[in-house]
């Protein structure tokens, strides 16, 4: 059924919005997390992402036009679906439009809903709540505060880094004033809509607001003033916090990151013109290789940081003594536990295993990598083979719904990447249309940024199939848990040199084990077996992948 998408309320004072740019056009396919448009509010131009999948059937507000909040922005539904009744004013489920706590494409939206009180809040005071920075986020952890109580805050300043279920993201302010109160300390976790901070004029009495705040942006009458608040004017004189780039982190807006990614520009090469050197859209658009800044001493910081960490003294445990260590679960670890438990306990898993000869693949890889500036791994070849095999066996590329099975005819392969806190799955969009070298470059880029916690939520959404490879650790065979809502995941083992039989003779050969975990609700055993046979043919004869 077609769904109405309305003009969202992206800030507490927004009554109307202007569509700056449409990033999708009528007829385009839309996945959850795709950026539909850039919307200009009364405070900033923000990316607006979709919470629905389907085809963009209608655009109600053209680029450059302004319309009130809740106006018909677009209609998303099945390709060819009749939407005449909706255009005539008929009812349909309205897409959940992000309010002040809704996510934009990345970490830059802020829930800045003014708390409604039994008596009005002091003039200019804004309650900032824990934002919903991804479609699946229910709580967040404050990793780092980049501002402290008493600091002056300008619109666009980064307040904190917030760890979600998918990534650690920068969180910027859409309000100007003084940071009067911090409600969630570094390392603490709180549900979405919890009181994160209070911003307002310096010296404003905000006593009682925090104590009487309730999730959802409401508060009751203020209590007597607190000494802590009265000290704010003095604290305001403290120098403004400057974002620390010594750890190699590059500050950039979500739109700048997207444009840079599309153009293949490394953000580390761009000099930002925004606050604290933050990279904005114009910096990317005006960037040329000749304008590349000389590498700064910061480029070595990540390695230095890793060296310091490696050099940290180990805990000494005397012999014969019991010693335990408690490590607080990160937000990522909690979500991994929740998602994989749900997958294993709800989807009836079964595994199919096949052995693949890698002799021709090894020769082909050596020939490909002999080309200058080309680097292709065996994993890249497996991903390419999977993409082509999925086109021939679309039932593997499916999603289970209670009332239907969704067959995905586009191929978006997720690649499992181990990071310090657990596991993330960045996604290669439209993998079947990518060359081996494009797959290799994209995987290296995504894996590198995943380990540095620089991936955006939209880069980890929309997968239709997943590949997990532990071959580099010498694991010859293993079974994975399905990455829902996918119906299957391929586990790739190490290449092993061993005796094999060819043409009746025992010779030395190279083989690799592939294990396919399937959801029996969507994939029958014969279907999974046929997919593995096709996959085996592609890998054992790589030239067929070029046909």
UniProtKB/TrEMBL annotation:
Q: Domain Lipoyl-binding, which positions?
A: 2-77, 125-200
UniProt-listed InterPro entries: 2-oxoA_DH_lipoyl-BS, 2-oxoacid_DH_actylTfrase, Biotin_lipoyl, CAT-like_dom_sf, E2/Pdx1, E3-bd_dom_sf, PSBD, Single_hybrid_motif
| Keyword field contains Ligase | no
GO BP terms in the entry? pyruvate decarboxylation to acetyl-CoA
Report the CDD domains cross-referenced here: lipoyl_domain
UniProt-recorded Gene Ontology molecular function terms: acyltransferase activity
The answer to whether the entry has keyword Membrane is: no
Q: Where in the sequence does UniProt note compositional bias of the Low complexity kind? A: 220-236, 289-304
What keyword terms does UniProt attach to this protein?
A: Acyltransferase, Lipoyl, Transferase
Obligatory cofactor(s): (R)-lipoate
Could you tell me the superkingdom of the organism this chain comes from? Bacteria
Spell out the residue ranges making up region: Disordered: 94-115, 220-243, 287-310
Residues forming coiled coils: none
Q: Where is the Peripheral subunit-binding (PSBD) domain?
A: 251-288
The record's annotation in PROSITE patterns points to: BIOTINYL_LIPOYL, LIPOYL, PSBD
Cellular component (GO) terms are: pyruvate dehydrogenase complex
EC number per UniProt = 2.3.1.-
What family is reported?
A: Belongs to the 2-oxoacid dehydrogenase family.
What does this protein do, in the record's words? The pyruvate dehydrogenase complex catalyzes the overall conversion of pyruvate to acetyl-CoA and CO(2). It contains multiple copies of three enzymatic components: pyruvate dehydrogenase (E1), dihydrolipoamide acetyltransferase (E2) and lipoamide dehydrogenase (E3).
Q: What is this protein called?
A: Dihydrolipoamide acetyltransferase component of pyruvate dehydrogenase complex
Q: Which organism is it from?
A: Flavobacterium potami
């Amino acid at each position: 059924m077609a769904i109405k998408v309305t003009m969202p309320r992206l800030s507490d004072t927004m009554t109307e919005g202007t569509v700056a740019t449409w990033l999708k056009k009528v007829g385009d396919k839309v996945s959850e997390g795709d950026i539909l448009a850039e919307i200009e509010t009364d405070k900033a131009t923000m990316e607006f992402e979709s919470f629905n999948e389907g085809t963009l059937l209608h655009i109600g507000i053209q680029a450059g036009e302004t319309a009130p909040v809740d106006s018909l922005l677009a209609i998303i539904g099945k390709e060819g679906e009749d939407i005449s009744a909706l255009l005539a004013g008929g009812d349909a489920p309205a897409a959940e439009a992000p309010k002040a706590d809704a996510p934009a494409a990345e970490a830059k939206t802020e829930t800045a809903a003014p708390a409604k009180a039994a008596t009005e809040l002091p003039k200019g005071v804004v309650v900032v709540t824990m934002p919903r920075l991804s479609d699946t986020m229910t709580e967040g952890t404050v990793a780092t505060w980049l501002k402290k109580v008493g600091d002056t805050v300008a619109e666009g300043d980064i307040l904190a880094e917030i760890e979600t279920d998918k990534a650690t993201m920068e969180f910027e302010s859409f309000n100007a004033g003084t940071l009067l109160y911090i409600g969630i300390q570094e390392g603490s976790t709180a549900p979405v809509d919890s009181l994160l901070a209070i911003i307002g004029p310096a010296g404003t009495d905000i006593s009682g607001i925090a104590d009487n705040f309730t999730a959802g942006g409401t508060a009751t009458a203020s209590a007597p003033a607190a000494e802590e608040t009265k000290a704010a004017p003095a604290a305001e004189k403290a120098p403004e916090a400057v974002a620390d780039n010594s750890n190699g982190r590059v500050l950039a807006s979500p739109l700048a990151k997207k444009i840079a990614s599309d153009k293949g520009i490394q953000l580390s090469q761009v000099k930002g013109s925004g606050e604290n050197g933050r990279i904005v859209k114009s910096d990317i658009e005006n960037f040329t290789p000749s304008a590349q800044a000389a590498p700064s001493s910061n480029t070595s910081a990540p390695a230095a940081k890793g060296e310091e960490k490696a050099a940290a003294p180990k805990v000494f445990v005397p012999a014969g003594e019991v010693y335990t260590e408690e490590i607080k679960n990160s937000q990522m670890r909690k979500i991994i536990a929740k998602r994989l438990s749900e997958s294993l306990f709800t989807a009836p898993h079964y595994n199919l295993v096949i052995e693949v000869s890698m002799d021709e693949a090894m020769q082909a890889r050596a020939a490909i990598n002999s080309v200058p500036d080309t680097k292709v791994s065996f994993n890249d070849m497996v991903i390419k083979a999977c993409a082509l095999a999925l086109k021939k066996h679309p039932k593997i590329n499916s999603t289970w719904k209670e009332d239907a099975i969704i067959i995905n005819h586009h191929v978006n392969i997720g690649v499992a990447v181990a990071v310090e806190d657990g596991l993330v799955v960045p996604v290669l969009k439209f993998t079947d249309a990518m060359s081996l070298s494009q797959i290799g470059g994209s995987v290296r880029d995504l894996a590198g940024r995943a380990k540095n916690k620089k991936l955006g939520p939209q880069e980890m959404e929309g997968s239709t199939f997943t590949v997990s490879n532990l071959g580099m650790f010498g694991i010859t065979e293993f079974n994975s848990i399905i990455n829902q809502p996918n119906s299957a995941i391929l586990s790739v083992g190490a290449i092993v040199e061993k005796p094999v039989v060819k043409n009746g003779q025992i010779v030395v050969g190279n083989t690799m084990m592939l294990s396919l975990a399937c959801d029996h609700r969507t994939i029958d055993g014969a279907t999974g077996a046929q997919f593995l046979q096709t996959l085996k043919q592609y890998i054992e004869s790589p030239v067929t992948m070029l046909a």
